[in-house]
Amino acid sequence: MTSEDPIKPAEGQDTKAADEPTKLSWRRSLVGMLLVLPVLLLLYRGLSRDPNSVDAVPARIGEPAHDFTLTRMDDRTRVSLSAQRGSIVVLNFWAGWCAPCRAEHGDLVRIANNYMPKGVLFYAVLHNDSEEGAKRFFDDLGPVPYPTLLPGTDHTGVEYGVTAQPETFVIDRDGLIAYKQLGPVSDSILRRRFIAVLDSLLGPS
Amino acid sequence: MKKRVGAEARGSIALLLLLSFTATAPRPAAAQQQPTAPSTMPSPRNERSLDPKLAERARSLNMKLRCPICAGASIEESPAAQAVEMKKVVREQVVAGKSDAEIEQYFVARYGEWILLAPPARGINLLVYLLPLALVLGGGIFVYKTARKWTRA
Fold first, then answer.
1. Is the full-model pTM beyond 0.80?
2. Least packed by Cβ within 10 Å: which of A12, A78, A107, A110?
3. pLDDT tens digit string along B46-71?
4. Chain A interface mutation, best of B111, B115, B149, highest count of A Cβ atoms under 10 Å
5. Residues 107-146 of A with CB under 8 A from B
6. ipTM beyond 0.85?
7. DSSP assignment of A155-184, as one string?
8. Buried b / exposed e along B40-67 (16+ C-beta atoms within 10 A)
9. Coil, strand or helix at B93
10. pLDDT tens digits for A48-65?
11. Which of B12, B114, B149 shows the shortest C-beta gap to A54?
């Protein structure tokens, strides 16, 4: 790009290029590559990311799950996570007004019906909604075969780093976060990671 | 071939510029941190019955935290349920006497660095701060040299 640059600007360049198409200033190609390379790296990094996870997600896998004590909607008893140690626990953060929560309801109930007999504990953790909202949801779509926990005062959702409903956590027998699903769970073939994690935690039966 | 490389370089400059713009977009949030007199416009539903000093601290912290639902907005500006919940947490921790750094750390530990609207200027994040500067400088030099070449011809 200095004045000694062998390439003369504009005029005559096209015909010259046609004559000797391979003659390329190494300096220019180097500059070009240096400019293109970071972009390619950024694109590569972006493409290899899982769109269902934000950056924060992998960092919390393997960390102890926040121990909450929340009230069950049905019998008003208190449930704490630490009391479930030794069992695989699934926490589904949801709200009655949330459309993706409606979308996942059928699949989630089906998955729960499959895995609860194997000893996996499911909890619906009501998040950013009231008990009335939850009731309306169950009236519309039918109940869930597992307990619903009402919001407490410990900001459970924030403790879990919930960004938006629905988010589903799998907690292993030692109380560590094994998996976090952003967005609806599904038993469709394309989005089976949630199920795969449950299977691997359960081990061969 | 020559033309192709030029076009590619131009394309990547445009892309980098675009990236740097999106990267610097959160700046206004950082600008709000300057210590000012107690806010003239406290948001009433969030900071009611809070000491004005604490309310101002909560507000400036809110401005630094990303709303997980809205694109590029802070929780202060967001009426989303999740942001309201997070504002409650900030408020409680401010009242409990936690320092700004402790409160930020609380959110970073749970959401990752992503939750901060202005990324800390270290490591790869430095790119966000230095690249625009480098591009402006480089662009200036490029324009200057090209203009000189043109005027000489």
1. no
2. A12
3. 445 778 889 999 999 999 999 988 88
4. B111
5. 128-129
6. no
7. -HHHHTT--SS-EEEEE-TTSBEEEEEES-
8. eebbeebbeebeeeebbbbbbbbbbbbb
9. helix
10. 766 655 554 556 888 999
11. B114
